[in-house]
Amino acid sequence: LRVLTLHPSLNDSDPIACTIQHASLSDASLEYKALSYTWGNSTLTKKIEWNGGREWQLALGYLRLRHEDRLVCIDAICINQLDMAERACQVRIRDEVYRRASNILVYLGE
What is the maximum alpha-carbon separation in the chain? Predict the structure, then answer.
């Protein structure tokens, strides 16, 4: 499992900064949020530190905390979408990923 660490910012106009790390669902100390979202326009309109579309910029901006990192599992980002074997494996554990999340966050778009 990969999780995204969304780094904090006091200024909403700062670029989105995040890192991806590997984690294990069997790690009892792992605390993360899972994001459920709608697909949207993939046109890039603001520079962030990974190649995400406008909807991701908005969603990550809303999710970003001001003073601390936030760990989030977002399948479109944390799963290698070009690796069909990985995608198939991750789809099989998606229910567990959502069950283990401390919260499910919903982003319906702007």
Answer: 39
Bridge partners for 107 per DSSP: 37
Which residues are 48's β-sheet partners? none
Q: How many CA atoms lie within 13 A of 6 on its CB side?
A: 27
Domain boundaries, the chain: 2-107
The label of the residue with tokens 């995608």 reads: 87
Is 53 a residue whose pLDDT tops 80?
no
List C-alpha distances in Å: 38 to 13, 67, 68, 93. Answer: 23, 27, 26, 20
Q: Dihedral sign, CA of 99, 100, 105, 109?
A: negative
Question: Could you report how far apart the first and last alpha carbons of the chain are, in Å?
Answer: 28
pTM, rounded to two decimals: 0.77
